[in-house]
Design goal:
By secondary structure, the protein is mainly alpha-helical. Helix content is 49%, strand content 6%. It has a two-stranded antiparallel sheet.
Length: 106
């Protein structure tokens, strides 16, 4: 694991219910979250959906970022499949233990 991943603070929402981001269509993330080449995420494509959630969880700076791009029920569904730095996963599961239960059940 990189030093960056262990030292970086991760934004975590107050509740999963507040995450009301899109579940259909396409999304282009802002540069402060996705600074690579301009990329449009097609939410109907599972690979795009997973990649977008991973990037938002890793790079979101505020709860507003999380509310805008993540959806609570979708996050619960995707959680076991997300490739995240251990500190990010730990921070989310500390706030939302049910995510760890979901991962264990999958």
């Amino acid at each position: 694991m990189s030093r960056y991943a262990t030292a970086k603070p991760y934004a975590v929402p107050a509740s999963l219910a507040e995450l009301d981001g899109p579940t259909t269509g396409t999304v282009t993330l802002p540069r402060h979250i996705d600074w690579g080449p301009h990329y449009v995420y097609d939410l109907a494509d599972e690979a795009d959906l997973l990649l977008m959630y991973e990037r938002v969880i890793r790079e979101a700076q505020t709860s507003d970022d999380l509310r805008t791009y993540l959806n609570g029920p979708m996050l619960r569904h995707l959680w076991p499949s997300l490739f995240l730095p251990a500190p990010a996963r730990a921070a989310w599961q500390a706030r939302f233990p049910e995510l760890g239960t979901t991962a264990a059940a999958a």
